[in-house]
Amino acid sequence: MNKEQFLAAIQEGMSGLNQRDLEPTIDYYREMIDDRIEEGLTEEQAIQALGPVSDIIAQILTDTSLAQLIKSTYPVKRGMRPWEITLLVIGSPIWGSLLLGAAALLFGIYILIWSFVLLLYAADLVFACASLGVINSIFLLCTGQPIQALFFFGAGLIGIGIAIPFFFGCNKVARGVIKLSKKFVIRLKRWILKKGGAK
């Protein structure tokens, strides 16, 4: 793949975006390729060093805010006519309620997912607190209660044994939720681009 094919592939992947807003991005990648060629790489090596086009498009979408993407994809071509404004105002109780309900539902699901992650961390904290039994066992041993000291020592070790790997599991779940959130936003932005390109 040469430079022009590479840049054309980026343009095609971002085809719904306003061309004027896409030009700085294309210029940026053109300049990056030129800089690497000046450093001694071949055109093909310079393009390979940038990575796959799909990853670049995903990064561009990640860096572009949703509001900016919508504004660029669906530019206002004319002012609204009075009858259009009237229809929007009259219909606002219906479309406004539906839009608000959909946003609240999505936000509620997102909060629910993060509540589950926080619940996992809280459970891990409970196991970590059980590890205080090791300290308690020393106190019990000093007061002449070896059986209770042994019980608390064992319970504390079990707490430590569960809390440490569980913590890493919680971190993995949290990273997974963040990754899924990013994928969802990128897919939403791709959908907006696709709809904008289909106009």
Give me the secondary-structure category.
Answer: mainly alpha
**Unreliable segments (pLDDT under 50, ≥5 consecutive)?**
none
Strand content: under 5%
User: What's the tally of helices?
Assistant: 8
What global shape is seen? flat
Major sheet size, sense and barrel closure = none
Radius of gyration: 28 Å
Distance between the termini: 30 Å
Mean of all residue-level pLDDT scores? 84
Order of helices and strands: HHHHHHHH
User: How many strand elements?
Assistant: 0
Proportion of helical residues: over 70%
Secondary-structure map:
Elements: H1 3-13, H2 19-38, H3 43-50, H4 53-63, H5 66-73, H6 82-130, H7 133-142, H8 146-197
Helix pairs in contact: 1-2, 1-4, 2-3, 5-8, 6-8, 7-8
Task: Pick out its properties.
199 residues; mainly alpha; flat
Question: Describe it for me?
Answer:
The model has no long low-confidence stretch (mean pLDDT 84). It is built from eight helices and no strands. α1 (3-13) packs antiparallel against α2, α5 packs parallel to α8 (146-197) and α7 (133-142) runs antiparallel to α8 (146-197). The longest helix has 52 residues, at 146-197. It has helices spanning 3-13, 19-38, 43-50, 53-63, 66-73, 82-130, 133-142, 146-197. It has 199 residues and is an all-alpha fold. The two termini are 30 Å apart. The radius of gyration is 28 Å and the shape is flat.
